[in-house]
Write a structure and sequence with these properties.
The chain is of the alpha/beta class. It is 53% helix and 15% strand.
Length: 238
């Protein structure tokens, strides 16, 4: 049963449970995809019916942001905790290396996915990278065909929301992958182009604040968090 927060249903799972489910999907027939919404993405879904359908159509909807956890508490439907997309993605890549499954990396600026591939192969011996492509393309269908031709079992789709969710919902089957994951800016972190917040910020659920300090231009995006909480409070009053 999913926890409904402003029209987006979140799976109420721990990280271990999410990874176990991810591995099950990876080893199953057909195409499956995972999304990791934060408050900003929920706000996008409120305004965009296609994005809402793509997010809710995922096989796993994981609560990436601490704002989602707070929102669930306000609505008296507590989630068991955050499941950060970068950590879930890392765990699934480790499983691919262990199981002999291949991975395709899609997204970020030219050259970033290639660097991420090198870093991940060094980090996880035996990992097979089926292919890479940057996120700067105009037509989706040829990219899906390229992923299928690579024979990848799993794809990291790091195109930003809602583009990545819409891509996975429409072209998941066409890629031939058993599992696709929408992981936003994770490619930059895997490549070393960007750094995740230090442990102190992660431990205290302040990653959003660290990102704002490092990149003040994000203030416009960060304003979605208080807007999200206003909407959650309004939903509670209903």
């Amino acid at each position: 049963m999913r926890i409904n927060i402003l029209g987006v249903g979140f799976d109420n799972v721990t990280m271990d449970e999410a990874l176990a489910r991810g591995e099950e999907l990876l080893c199953s027939e057909g195409a499956h995809y995972v999304v990791t919404p934060n408050p900003e993405i929920v706000e996008t879904c409120r305004a965009d019916a296609a994005a809402n359908a793509a997010v809710n159509g995922a096989d796993l909807v994981l609560p990436d942001g601490i704002g989602i956890v707070y929102g669930a508490k306000i609505l008296h439907q507590p989630l068991r905790g955050r499941v950060p997309g970068i950590e879930f993605g890392t765990g699934m890549i480790e499983r691919c290396a262990r199981l002999g499954k291949s991975v395709y990396l899609l997204g970020a600026k030219p050259g970033v996915a290639e660097q991420a591939a090198e870093n991940l192969k060094n980090r996880f011996p035996g990992l097979v990278i089926a292919g890479t492509h940057d996120g700067y393309f105009k037509e989706d269908a040829p990219i899906a065909a390229e992923i299928k031709a690579s024979g990848a079992d799993m794809a990291l789709v790091c195109l930003g929301a809602p583009k990545q969710e819409l891509f996975m919902a429409k072209y998941g089957e066409a890629t031939g992958c058993h599992l696709l994951m929408g992981l936003g800016g994770s490619m930059d972190i895997f490549a070393g182009v960007a750094q995740r917040a230090p442990e102190f910020y992660c431990k205290h659920n302040l990653e959003w604040f660290y990102r704002l300090i490092k990149n003040p231009s994000r203030i416009g995006r960060m304003m979605k968090l208080p807007l999200f909480l206003v909407h959650v409070s309004g939903e509670k009053r209903k």
